[in-house]
Amino acid sequence: MLTLSEAASPAYWVALLPLTVLSVVSTSGAFRAMHTFVLHHASHEDFGRRSRLAGDVAGIIGMTQSYADYRRDHRVHHAALTSALDPDQQALAALGFLPGLPRAAYPALLRHTLIHPGPHLRTSAARLRANVSPRTRPLRSAVFLITHGLLLLAAVTGAHLSGQPGPLIAWITAWLIPLTVGHHISAVLYALGLHAWYRRSPAAGWAGFAERTGARFFADPCPARLPGGRPAALAWTRWWLRLILWHLCVARLLVIGPTDNGCHDAHHADPAGRRFDWCNAAYARPALLAQLPHTKVHFWHTWSLSGAIRRNFDQLADQDGIA
């Protein structure tokens, strides 16, 4: 058992910091998965008769929409993908991500959206209103307040009884920050790599559809064969650092989370799940492409989160602005 002096030592906090950051990142991704995975598949009735219950519980835990509200919006998203009616595109537009801006403006806008407190506060307030407002069902509001309020009450009580801020700090880092700041960062990065927003293709059928939806995979090619020594060691060190820190921790844990949304094009190709086994998405996508040869011709994918976002910024800058 650590003594108070040991726990307060700089070495203790230095050792604890990486685990704390990893905890915040993974918990943020788990909160997002309440929306992008549980609520999403509930809206497609993938949990059978329990879909409404699963969706509403996920929405309360993740401080996001109710099952009914999400299902309404998601139907429009599928029917009017990347059009002015698409609720997902409207959310990005509200953050300022519009077509026709100078290419250099998009990274600056992304930094502002991720760092400035204004967008964080607006999105968190909107999510809170979805659960506690005059238009919210009283039962939902009550369950939301009890669920989140009891956790805060336990933290405050623990801090009071122990005379130490530890329980309150644990609540802030394990619940509040992932639910607000982490959720917002994850949602923005997720959406910017999800679809080719605002794109209206003249191509009919699959060709036009496939231009707007791709898959996201996360890896780099292995370093080129180099002579031994320092160059090879540096190349492999960089490769492993990117794999662990960027592709795994950021792209997979924070943004995509424990979901099937890396293969989002396959979901849009078969939203009812008649051919696409979403429980085994990484294996089901190649199987779906084999069953539907026209998807193999038109579908596209990227191999990093940053690559997906850059691709979107390129195509946004190439489009005309909204009048």
Notes on the structure:
The protein is mainly α and 323 residues long. The chain has one domain (4-318). It is 67% helix and 1% strand. It has 15 helices and 2 strands. The chain has helices at 4-7, 10-43, 51-61, 67-79, 87-94, 105-115, 117-129, 138-162, 166-192, 205-210, 230-256, 264-269, 281-291, 293-298, 305-318, and strands at residues 215-216, 301-302. A two-stranded parallel ribbon has the order 1-2. Helix 2 (10-43) runs antiparallel to helix 3, helix 2 packs across helix 4 and helix 8 crosses helix 9. Mean pLDDT is 87; it is low at 1-5. It comes from Streptomyces genisteinicus. This is Fatty acid desaturase. Keywords: Membrane, Transmembrane, Transmembrane helix.
- Identify the strand order in the major beta sheet: 1-2
C-alpha end-to-end distance = 65 Å
Mean pLDDT: 87
Radius of gyration: 22 Å
Helix-strand pattern? HHHHHHHHHHEHHHHEH
| Number of helical segments with 4 or more residues | 15
Strand content: under 5%
Structural class: mainly alpha
Low-confidence blocks of residues: 1-5
Question: How would you describe the shape?
Answer: globular
- Total number of beta strands: 2
Number of domains: 1
* Largest sheet entry: 2 strands, parallel
| Helical fraction | 55-70%
How does the SSE layout of this entry go?
Blueprint: H1 4-7, H2 10-43, H3 51-61, H4 67-79, H5 87-94, H6 105-115, H7 117-129, H8 138-162, H9 166-192, H10 205-210, E1 215-216, H11 230-256, H12 264-269, H13 281-291, H14 293-298, E2 301-302, H15 305-318
Parallel strand pairs: 1-2
Helix pairs in contact: 2-3, 2-4, 2-9, 2-11, 6-7, 7-9, 8-9
